[in-house]
């Protein structure tokens, strides 16, 4: 495919048919979905923002209120009034939030976590409205109130903390590399000047660009489309969080995941800075899930034997 | 003899200027004047015959090119464009429907693809080699093959229940909308330009002006010769020259009949055929764009976004009142109502989706109600298109009337005029020998 003119790119990027992958699409800024010459990397990132502890969230006050007794005037009460919790997520990240081709429903770890929060607000885990957020738009949609929260394999970073609040970490993972079964590549270091795919607007894409061996980052609208590019031999590898790669590998018996984790990705729920009480509430829900085994049950359902859940850290 | 021999060095070799001078001197003597008139008549009749034949050939070729190449190319380009857009919409709807792809949608997609590839094959024969259009056709053929492969993979993968099937469809859709449709649009624009120049070439205006000038000159020359002869001889009428004048009049009448018939019919073909077809093409592509935007908005599952904006933009641009469409006014009135009905349904779909009832919105969008509302609309546009294609065919056939005869008769008549001129003037010339 050729490189597209910006106007077309905008149209098309947004166009994503199907899947429509959660990602990428609606942002005029993201790099065009280059396949061949791929230089769609994000601007060279400045030195990593380490001015904060991205894992430390807002400390909850008191115990988790019952659904009927949500504090008046709080964001939770307002959501309850709206009738549905609007969850922003993706629809093509297998195991976390992907569309089940048989039922057309979106399901996965992230969605089940959303259901826990809906259950805490409504007493009914199904009062959930899913909106697919283009990956580069995640923080904007939370900030602008287009969704109540985003749970979408989103890493808490100091840069993102400037725009949104994050809950405590619900999953710790890190970036690895997916290559062909017969490949000799052992880690990201063996991919110098080779094409490596990641979704536009993801931290994974920025991380690829930061590698000293200068692999060529190729931006696609979603990780699903990265898998298409990989299967069509347009890229030699896909690099992102191990958990997402596991979902991709599950769909391609000729793929393998290699290398050590070369980044740390703490997944957390993104919530608007306007509603700190909601963030504290979500932290209470997460704490309860860690304690009563719900977290482990969800983990086992989607990802296999559950480890110890990541401990909550507070400011 | 000896005198002649002795004199020869005096006159030979004649200096070059004397050719012109001798030509001028011809006017001083009566036989000279007759010779001049004869030469003028001969030259004019030969030229008229030649130009009449060439003009008729050029107009006939132009008309045939318009009929057999330019206009069909336009129709094919439109088919490629709309078939690709429709395939994209259909694939998106099949995805939305979830589970096993509905048979109705599979068949529609297959039919779209078949229409696109068939139209491309014949378009390839109508585009000049090495032209921009020929490369667009080649790129489209290659791209369509790749598109079909991606959709086929998506289906196979969907059957295994893997989410990457959706990504294959997304990649295919991106290829369709970003690359193939712009190429189809470029081909369509090329074909539109070809049709415009096709009409110009069919009218052969420059040839016709030249022919007119020559015929006027021939008539003047004939009349001048006859007035000269009746003034210098005792006979009022020179029968062969009168006959030549009559033949010239016949030539004029024939040309007038053939060319004015052609111009009238070309005019009708353009105003009642090509122009409404072009307007209908715009209408069809805009409504297809609306339907695709609707499906893509739902597939993106992100609420009203850029595709919904595009829907509204297309709706703004859409008009059923183009003056070119007056002749299919009734059908357009129907289409306007049908489109209103479809837009109402679309607003309902948006209201459901925006209100959080995503499943209800999808059900309404791919369900029978909206599908048939949209189908009757496209069927009406198809009817109008077929009607105007028929009108174009009729007039373009009629425009070609008489050229076959004129190509032969024109030069023959002119030749006869020349021969008659010789018959008319030679006896007068011989009187001076």
Summarize the helices and strands and which ones pair or pack.
The complex is a heterodimer of chains A (315) and B (433).
Chain A: H1 6-15, E1 56-57, H2 75-82, E2 85-89, E3 92-93, E4 97-99, E5 106-107, H3 109-122, E6 128-132, H4 138-143, E7 149-150, H5 158-161, E8 165-173, E9 175-180, E10 195-199, H6 203-210, E11 216-220, H7 223-231, E12 237-241, H8 242-249, E13 255-258, E14 265-271, H9 276-292, H10 294-303, E15 313-314
Parallel strand pairs in A: 1-15, 2-6, 2-7, 10-11, 10-12
Antiparallel strand pairs in A: 3-4, 4-5, 7-14, 8-14, 9-12, 9-13
Chain B: H1 2-11, H2 17-25, H3 30-97, H4 103-126, H5 132-159, H6 164-203, H7 205-232, H8 239-300, H9 306-317, H10 329-354, H11 358-366, H12 368-399, H13 403-430
Task: Summarize the structure in words.
The complex is a heterodimer of chains A (315) and B (433). Chain A has helices spanning 6-15, 75-82, 109-122, 138-143, 158-161, 203-210, 223-231, 242-249, 276-292, 294-303; strands at 56-57, 85-89, 92-93, 97-99, 106-107, 128-132, 149-150, 165-173, 175-180, 195-199, 216-220, 237-241, 255-258, 265-271, 313-314. Chain A has 315 residues and is of the alpha/beta class. In chain A, the strands form four sheets. Chain A has a five-stranded mixed sheet. In chain A, strands 11-10-12-9-13 form a five-stranded mixed sheet, sandwiched between helices. A three-stranded antiparallel sheet of chain A has the order 3-4-5. Chain B is mostly helical and 433 residues long. In chain B, 87% of the residues lie in helices and 0% in strands. Chain B has 13 helices and no strands. The longest helix of chain B has 68 residues, at 30-97. Chain B is elongated and about 110 Å long. The two termini of chain B are 20 Å apart. In chain B, 44% of the residues are buried. The model of chain B is unreliable at 1-11 (pLDDT under 50). The chains are: A alpha/beta (315), B mainly alpha (433).
């Amino acid at each position: 495919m050729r490189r597209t003119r910006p106007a077309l790119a905008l149209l098309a990027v947004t166009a994503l048919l199907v899947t429509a992958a959660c990602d990428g699409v609606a942002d005029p800024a993201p790099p065009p979905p280059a396949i061949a010459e791929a230089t769609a990397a994000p601007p060279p990132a400045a030195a990593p923002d380490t001015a904060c502890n991205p894992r430390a969230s807002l400390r909850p006050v008191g115990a988790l209120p019952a659904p009927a007794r949500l504090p008046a005037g709080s964001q939770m009460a307002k959501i309850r009034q709206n009738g549905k919790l609007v969850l922003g997520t993706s629809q093509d990240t297998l195991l976390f939030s992907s569309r089940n081709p048989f039922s057309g429903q979106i399901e996965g770890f992230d969605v089940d976590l959303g259901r826990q929060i809906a259950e805490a607000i409504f007493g009914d885990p199904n009062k959930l409205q899913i909106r697919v957020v283009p990956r580069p738009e995640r923080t904007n949609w939370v900030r602008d109130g287009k969704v109540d929260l985003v749970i979408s394999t989103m890493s808490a970073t100091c840069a993102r903390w400037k725009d949104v609040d994050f809950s405590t970490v619900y999953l710790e993972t890190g970036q690895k590399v997916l290559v062909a079964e017969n490949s000799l590549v052992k880690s990201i270091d063996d991919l110098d000047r080779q094409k490596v795919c990641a979704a536009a607007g993801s931290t994974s894409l920025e991380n690829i660009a930061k590698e000293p061996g200068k692999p060529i980052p190729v931006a696609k609208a979603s990780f699903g489309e990265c898998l298409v590019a990989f299967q069509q031999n347009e890229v030699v590898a896909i690099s992102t969080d191990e958990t997402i790669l596991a979902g991709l590998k599950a769909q391609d018996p000729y793929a393998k995941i290699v290398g050590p984790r070369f980044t740390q990705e703490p997944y957390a729920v993104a919530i608007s800075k306007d509603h700190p009480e909601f963030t504290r509430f979500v932290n209470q829900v997460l704490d309860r899930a860690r304690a009563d085994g719900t977290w482990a049950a969800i983990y086992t359902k989607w990802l296999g034997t559950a480890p110890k859940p990541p401990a909550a850290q507070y400011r | 003899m000896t005198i002649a021999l002795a004199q020869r060095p005096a006159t030979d070799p004649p200096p070059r200027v004397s050719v012109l001078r001798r030509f001028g001197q011809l006017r001083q003597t009566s036989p000279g004047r007759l010779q001049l008139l004869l030469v003028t008549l001969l030259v004019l009749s030969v030229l008229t015959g030649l130009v009449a034949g060439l003009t008729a050939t050029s107009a006939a070729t132009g008309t045939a090119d318009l009929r057999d190449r330019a206009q069909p190319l336009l129709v094919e380009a439109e088919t490629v464009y709309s078939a690709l857009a429709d395939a994209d919409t259909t694939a998106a709807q099949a995805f939305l429907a979830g589970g096993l792809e509905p048979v109705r949608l599979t068949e529609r997609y297959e039919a779209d693809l078949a229409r696109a590839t068939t139209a491309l094959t014949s378009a390839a024969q109508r585009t000049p080699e090495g032209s921009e259009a020929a490369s667009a056709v080649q790129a489209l053929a290659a791209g369509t093959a790749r598109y079909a492969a991606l959709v086929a993979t998506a289906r196979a993968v969907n059957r295994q229940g893997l989410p990457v099937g959706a990504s294959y469809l997304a990649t295919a859709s991106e290829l369709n909308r970003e690359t193939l449709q712009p190429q189809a649009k470029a081909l369509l624009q090329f074909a539109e330009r070809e049709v415009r120049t096709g009409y110009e070439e069919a009218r052969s205006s420059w040839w016709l002006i030249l022919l007119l000038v020559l015929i006027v000159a021939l008539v003047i020359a004939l009349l001048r010769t006859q007035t000269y002869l009746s003034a210098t001889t005792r006979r009022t009428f020179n029968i062969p020259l009168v006959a030549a004048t009559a033949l010239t009049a016949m030539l004029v009448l024939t040309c007038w009949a053939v060319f004015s018939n052609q111009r009238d019919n070309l005019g009708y073909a353009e105003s009642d055929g090509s122009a409404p077809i072009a307007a209908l093409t715009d209408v069809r592509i805009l409504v297809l764009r609306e339907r695709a935007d609707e499906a893509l908005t739902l597939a993106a599952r992100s609420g009203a976004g850029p595709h919904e904006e595009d829907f509204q933009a297309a709706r703004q641009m859409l008009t059923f009142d183009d003056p070119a469409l007056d002749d299919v006014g009734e059908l357009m009135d129907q289409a306007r109502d049908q489109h209103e009905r479809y837009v109402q349904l679309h607003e309902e779909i948006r209201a459901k989706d925006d209100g959080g009832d995503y499943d209800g919105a999808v059900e309404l969008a791919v369900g029978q109600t909206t599908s048939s509302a949209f189908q009757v609309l496209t069927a009406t546009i198809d009817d109008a298109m077929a009607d105007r294609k028929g009108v174009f065919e009729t007039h373009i056939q009629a425009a070609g009337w008489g050229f076959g005869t004129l190509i032969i008769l024109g030069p023959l008549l002119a030749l006869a005029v020349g021969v008659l001129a010789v018959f008319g003037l030679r006896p007068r010339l011989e009187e001076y020998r």
